[in-house]
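Researcher: Let's do a round of design. I'm pasting the structure tokens now; please hold your answer until I've finished.
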């Protein structure tokens, strides 16, 4: 469903992505994990066409996204990082905008909006401005907007950040059913337990490259995914120099 080859991206002197390769099969729930600043958001932004790579290729469902960006984007639903969204719209208006942008007719858009709002449990908030939503509610309406055109691939940057455990279970259920029906999810997360539980495959990105990838059980081996992740990320750092914090100033 997705192939990424030789991806490079620098911001001035900072190398964010350094020759990254990724292969995601159709029907997979694929997790991307990595320490802060590893290049996850940069990679996902390039895959979804929000950012241009310095070098490398992205193929979505066999389509070269660099050469045919419109065709590639049609197949993808995107949840960007930092919840960049049009928050002066109501939830209903945001979903209507997302559906119309994706070429759905008004009746279909309204029907799907109602279905998604019910599935995510945000029906009562549909008439309110997204700017007034809580972080978790904003995440849910943004997820709904990413799904409204029933894309083949969902690229979700931190979909569970700020989402309460009950809502996370709801979101997980929706994503699992989507994957069971043949959809593909690529998500980034700092929740190792969650990735180990819901993803079938994982890539560990450190310093802009994939250090390990494959089926979750293969990548983690005898360890938990968290232990394996910490090992790949260079181990726990011993904290020194904060002794002053323990000599309370009052
Ligand atoms: N717009 C930008 N301008 C300059 N540097 C950037 C920009 N965006 C990202 N970077 C740098 O690129 C590197 C990778 O950042 P990126 O946001 O892709 O990491 P990440 O893995 O998503 O991190 P996190 O887990 O903290 O969200 C970091 O060193 C970051 O400071």
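Researcher: That's everything. Go ahead.
Model: Designed sequence:
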């Amino acid at each position: 469903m997705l192939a990424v080859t030789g991806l490079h991206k620098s911001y001035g002197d900072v190398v964010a992505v350094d020759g990254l390769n990724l292969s995601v099969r159709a029907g997979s729930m694929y997790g991307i994990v990595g320490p802060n600043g590893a290049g996850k958001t940069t990679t996902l932004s390039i895959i979804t066409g929000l950012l241009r790579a310095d070098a490398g290729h992205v193929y979505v469902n066999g389509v070269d996204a660099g050469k045919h960006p419109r065709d590639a984007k049609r197949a993808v639903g995107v949840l960007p990082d930092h919840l960049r969204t049009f928050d002066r719209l109501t939830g209903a208006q945001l979903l209507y905008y997302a559906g119309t942008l994706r070429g759905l007719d008004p009746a279909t858009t309204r029907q799907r909006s109602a279905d998604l709002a019910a599935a995510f449990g945000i029906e009562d908030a549909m008439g309110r401005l997204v700017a007034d939503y809580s972080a978790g509610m904003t995440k849910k309406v943004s997820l709904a907007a990413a799904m409204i055109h029933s894309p083949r691939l969902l690229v979700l940057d931190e979909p569970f950040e700020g989402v309460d455990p009950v809502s996370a279970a709801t979101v997980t259920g929706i994503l699992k059913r989507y994957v069971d029906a043949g959809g593909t999810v690529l998500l980034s997360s700092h929740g190792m337990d969650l990735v180990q539980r819901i993803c079938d495959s994982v890539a560990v990105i450190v310093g802009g490259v994939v250090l390990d990838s494959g089926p979750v059980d293969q990548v983690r081996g005898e360890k938990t995914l968290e232990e394996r992740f910490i090992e790949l990320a260079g181990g726990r750092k011993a904290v020194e120099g904060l002794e002053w914090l323990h000599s309370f100033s009052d």
